[in-house]
Write a structure and sequence with these properties.
The structure holds 2 protein chains of 2 kinds.
Chain A: H1 3-34, H2 44-53, E1 57-60, H3 65-83, H4 93-97, H5 100-120, H6 124-155, H7 160-169, H8 176-192, H9 211-214, H10 220-245, H11 256-283, H12 292-314
Helix pairs in contact in A: 1-3, 1-10, 1-11, 2-10, 3-5, 3-10, 5-6, 6-7, 6-8, 6-12, 8-10, 8-12, 10-11
Chain B: H1 2-21, E1 25-33, E2 36-42, H2 44-69, H3 78-97, H4 101-119, H5 126-157, H6 162-167, H7 172-190, H8 199-205, H9 208-234, H10 239-262, H11 266-293, H12 297-332, H13 343-346, H14 348-361, H15 368-380, H16 389-420, H17 428-431, H18 438-456, H19 458-465, H20 467-472, H21 500-520, E3 526-529, H22 547-557, E4 563-569, E5 577-583, H23 585-606, H24 613-631
Antiparallel strand pairs in B: 1-2, 4-5
Helix pairs in contact in B: 1-2, 2-3, 2-9, 2-12, 2-18, 3-4, 3-9, 4-5, 4-9, 5-7, 5-8, 7-9, 8-11, 9-11, 9-12, 10-11, 10-16, 11-12, 11-15, 11-16, 12-14, 12-15, 12-18, 14-16, 14-18, 15-16, 15-18
Classes of the chains: A mainly alpha, B mainly alpha.
């Protein structure tokens, strides 16, 4: 692991933070186009973040110190989790620090603090959001782990860079296990990033909120960090799906040309994936809370089927 | 009480020395029966468990004196409490040191009986007496099963000494009988589902530092006994046993955490989490036995190390959490979560340490609970190396259960911490809670620091634990620390790696860096204001989400697994009251039928008791004749 590798890893981490608002802007833009609206410009999320960062933070009288610490923890864990996923290149040291189980653990740590912060002020909305978020997380986390375990068992490694390498070097075989795992992971990604049909990021009705209800008491730079973390999370799941299941284009050597190609490839993949998300969000309606367990059980079932079809059908092939 | 801390320190040092030495020290005590002197032996396995007992006892020793002072003016004698605590600890230490079945059973019973008196300490409460009796009953059924297991072993080994038992060769059938008896006996003590129902009754009613000892340490002694009998004395491994362990372990883990979510008595909730964590430990042991039984010794060691790592982790964080619950009880006299709230601002140190415990038990990086769960997952992910398709598909399902358990545990501790320590106080005495004395804080702090250290430096810890599989299995995990202290690589560097020190440092640097950058900017002010009230009445403490409300979605989703009684009582003129009771299904399905059968049998036997002495003499004569006929 050379200095160049660490340098690229750092660059990749910064890219995650820098590109995340753009992805959200793109999803909103496509949704607006589908709804015959012009929509806000692509860079609107950056403007929102800047506005929030420039404002005073207001904190409720009843809040404890944890309330002010939580945004930093949530942001740092999400960002670090994202940095462990190969965005431009494989073979970076960040993937060795945190493998895919650590990645899930880091996201869970962020969620833990987010839910605690929501309960801190002592309003009913915060508790409601936290309770719902933890329900969804409890059902989504096993599905996500099973999906990544399918990849891990196939590549005989939980290191994401190794998994991506494995998929690159082995010619594309249409594995049933991968299809199931992809399906499961897509459903988990929708649930975990708080998109329709599980949660609605644009809702203004407190009673239907999950993620937004937890952020209700935040303002100023605290809110900016929370929002930014949510945007990074969307980019994280997009990259995870794009680069592990469709790894073509990612740089295997750390040359500028290969890295540039990697950037173009991932942007292209994410643009398509985000457009698909926008279409799905336009077509579907939000579900009732107690229908989400069925949705997530489907995700768990698909992931488990993927794992089982690997251990039964594909071992040794 | 300070003696307790010293004893703990001595045990910790002795245990670590034994782990470091890697060879066994034996001695014979001048006690016991003439033909069967008490032999003790300190090897790596015993040393590991001594260290576990020692470290928790140190914390409890620091904490105990201040906690007990509050009980001084009660009706109960402190001498009884102190004396039985000492006996309890002696029993546990002797169990780990015993080198023959006789001393083992004596020490085991010493441990069970003295802890019975500790459970029954506050015996003026009828519920406590009932819990203590149930505990005594279950401890004896378990003890009987262990005794029978030793009987099977001794009949093949020719002696009650462990040395002889190790050499005895056993056919698969008898070995399985011994395994099942040991699993039943030790599993009952460890609180595995469906035999767990006594545990959430008995553990919470003891004084809190004793609850900590029982949950954190005594359950580990059961794990020790199981390891000693199955891994060391039987020393044969069959994948069928592994499957049994996996199934029971997964079931215990899941049911434990689900029932924990339904509790709102803090100590009961923690006791249910012990069921869950013991389940996780047995999942690790099950993986180990499956791999050993199919000829993968290195992976077997990995499973064993994962289980042992979780053993020490659970001892630390469960001890910490029970001490925290004791601190809340001490300063607010409250065990019910529904009455708590806002304790973080009233007891900041306890709040901080409790948070460490919550993060650790929820298996979140970079704390210790995550490391053992990570290792268990790594062991499970090697399932592709197995030849049997059934095993290959069973292990992923077990790991799915483990993942679900971890996520539900996180939900449960968000509930606990959010309701107890955050928000606003829900009752008057909680609002008046004061920080606890220094000694109690130090006890919690010690365990919290250990939780963090074991989470951040797993490589060094595994190097130490590695002595155990090297001793009893003959194969260690050499790869785990092959890449320096920074990297944890259980199988090989290409398969999986985790660098807890780097992760913790980067996490800290990023969080601090972001905070510093933002604070340097133009805005640094934080203005205080009221919480958002939708323009209606200002938020009051009773508007907050309660523990029951928090768990309601999960109760609905997993409703079939609980025995739920729910309804609204609306009497004439009285205000309507919501009534909810969630009961353990194990009562109805297992305990109640057994109790009924026993009562039924007892009623039949009563007929013998006519009160007429001639009938009794007749029975005696008949028995005598029958016995003579049998020996003749």
């Amino acid at each position: 692991m050379t200095a160049a590798a660490w340098g690229v890893a750092l660059l990749q981490g910064l890219l995650y933070a820098a590109l995340a608002p753009l992805l959200v802007g793109w999803v909103r833009k496509v949704k607006a186009a589908l709804q015959n609206r012009r929509g806000a410009p692509l860079i609107q999320p950056y403007r929102d973040l800047r506005k929030l960062l420039a404002k005073d933070a207001r904190v409720a009288h009843t809040a404890s110190p944890l309330f002010q610490v939580a945004p930093y923890v949530v942001f740092a864990t999400t960002w670090l989790a994202a940095s462990a996923i190969p965005l431009l290149a494989t073979g970076l040291p960040t993937a060795a620090i945190a493998d895919m189980i650590v990645l899930v653990g880091l996201l869970a740590l962020g969620r833990f603090f987010l839910a605690l912060a929501a309960m801190d002020v002592g309003t009913a909305f915060g508790g409601m959001g936290a309770s719902r978020e933890m329900l969804i997380a409890a059902l989504a986390e096993p599905a996500m782990l099973m999906a990544v375990f399918t990849l891990a068992m196939t590549a005989h490694s939980t290191n994401l860079a190794t998994v991506v390498d494995y998929n690159l070097t082995n010619a594309l075989v249409l594995r049933p296990s991968f299809l199931f795992a992809l399906g499961g992971l897509l459903l988990v990604a929708i649930a975990e990033t708080g998109r329709i049909p599980v949660d609605n990021p644009a809702t203004h009705l407190e009673l239907t909120m999950i993620h937004e209800a937890m952020l209700l008491e935040y303002s100023g730079r605290h809110l900016a960090l929370m929002e930014w973390a949510a945007q990074i999370k969307l980019l994280l799941y997009g990259t995870l799906i794009a680069n592990t299941f469709l790894p073509w284009g990612i740089a295997e050597h750390l040359t500028p040309a290969a890295l540039a190609l990697g950037l173009v490839a991932i942007v292209f993949k994410l643009v398509l994936l985000a457009a698909a998300l926008a279409v799905a969000e336009t077509v579907l309606a939000k579900m009732r809370l107690f229908r989400t367990p069925a949705f997530l059980n489907l995700a768990l079932l698909m992931s488990l089927l993927g794992l089982l079809s690997y251990v039964i059908l594909e071992v040794g092939t | 009480m300070p003696l307790l801390g010293l004893a703990g320190l001595a045990a910790l040092v002795a245990g670590l020395v034994a782990l470091g030495e890697g060879r066994a020290i034996t001695a014979t005590l001048p006690l016991g029966l003439p033909w069967l002197p008490w032999r003790v032996r300190l090897d790596a396995l015993a040393g590991f468990f001594l260290a576990v007992i020692g470290v928790v006892t140190c914390g409890v020793g620091l904490y105990g004196p201040a906690y007990v002072r509050a009980l001084e003016h009660g009706r109960d004698s402190l001498i009884v409490l102190g004396g039985f605590t000492g006996l309890f600890l002696t029993g546990m230490l002797l169990v780990t040191l015993a080198d023959d079945a006789f001393l083992f059973m004596v020490a085991w019973e010493l441990m069970s009986l003295s802890s019975y008196f500790l459970v029954a300490f506050q015996h003026e409460n009828a519920a406590n007496r009932r819990a203590a009796f149930l505990y005594l009953l279950m401890a004896h059924v378990g003890g009987l099963s262990i005794l029978l297991a030793f009987g099977v072993l001794a009949s093949f080994g020719g002696s009650f000494a462990f040395e002889a038992m190790r050499t005895g060769a056993m056919p698969f059938g008898w070995a399985s009988v011994a395994f099942l008896l040991a699993f039943l006996g030790f599993g009952m003590k460890a609180g595995l589902v469906p035999l767990h129902a006594w545990l959430p009754e008995a553990h919470p009613v003891a004084p809190s530092h004793i609850s900590a000892l029982m949950s954190a340490v005594m359950l580990k002694v059961a794990v020790y006994g199981f390891l000693r009998v199955v891994f060391d004395l039987l020393h044969q491994f069959h994948w069928q046993w592994g499957v049994a362990l996996l199934l029971v372990g997964s079931f215990s883990a899941l049911m434990g955490v689900l029932y924990a979510l339904m509790q709102h008595d803090l100590k009961r909730l923690l006791a249910y989490h012990s069921v869950e964590n013991l389940g996780i430990i047995f999942i690790g042991l099950g993986l180990s036995v499956v791999f050993l039984g199919t000829g993968h010794p290195v992976l077997g060691s990995l499973g064993l190390i994962a289980a042992l790592y979780h053993t020490v982790n659970h001892a630390l964080f469960k001890g910490l959490l029970f001490l925290g619950a004791g601190a809340i009880l001490h300063s607010s006299h409250e065990r019910d979560l529904e009455q708590m709230g806002g304790l973080l601002r009233r007891m900041p140190w306890t709040g901080l340490f409790f948070l460490v415990g919550c993060i650790s038990i929820s298996a979140l990086p970079p704390f210790n609970g995550f490391v053992s769960e990570w290792l268990t997952f790594q062991a499970a992910l090697q399932a592709w190396q197995l030849d049997s398709g059934v095993l290959r598909s069973l292990i992923p399902i077990a790991s799915a259960v483990l993942a679900l358990t971890g996520a539900l545990a996180a939900a449960c501790f968000v509930k606990v911490y959010g309701v107890a320590f955050l928000g606003q106080a829900r009752s008057r005495h909680v609002r008046r809670a004061r920080p606890v004395p220094m000694g109690m804080r130090a006890g919690q702090g010690l365990l919290a620091v250990f939780c963090l250290v074991l989470g951040i430096f797993p490589t060094g810890v595994i190097e130490v634990i590695d002595a155990v599989p090297r001793q009893i299995l003959g194969s260690g995990l050499p790869e785990a620390s092959a890449h320096g202290w920074l990297w944890l690589t259980p199988v090989s560097a290409a398969t999986a790696s985790y660098s807890a020190p780097l992760l913790a440092v980067i996490l800290g640097v990023v969080a601090a860096g972001v905070a510093w950058t933002l604070r340097r900017g133009a805005v640094r002010r934080v203005r205080r204001c009221d919480a958002w009230d939708c323009g209606f009445a200002p938020p009051a403490a009773r508007m907050q989400y309660t523990a029951t409300a928090f768990a309601q979605p999960i109760r609905r989703v997993f409703g079939l697994l609980f025995h739920v009684e729910e309804g609204v009582d609306a009497g004439e003129g009285a205000a309507a009251r919501y009534r909810l009771r969630v009961r353990d299904r194990a009562w109805g399905l297992l305990y109640a039928p057994v109790a009924q059968a026993v009562e039924f049998a007892a009623r039949r036997v009563v007929r013998l008791q006519s009160g007429n002495i001639r009938v009794y003499l007749g029975w005696t004569l008949a028995t005598l004749v029958a016995l003579l006929w049998i020996i003749a």
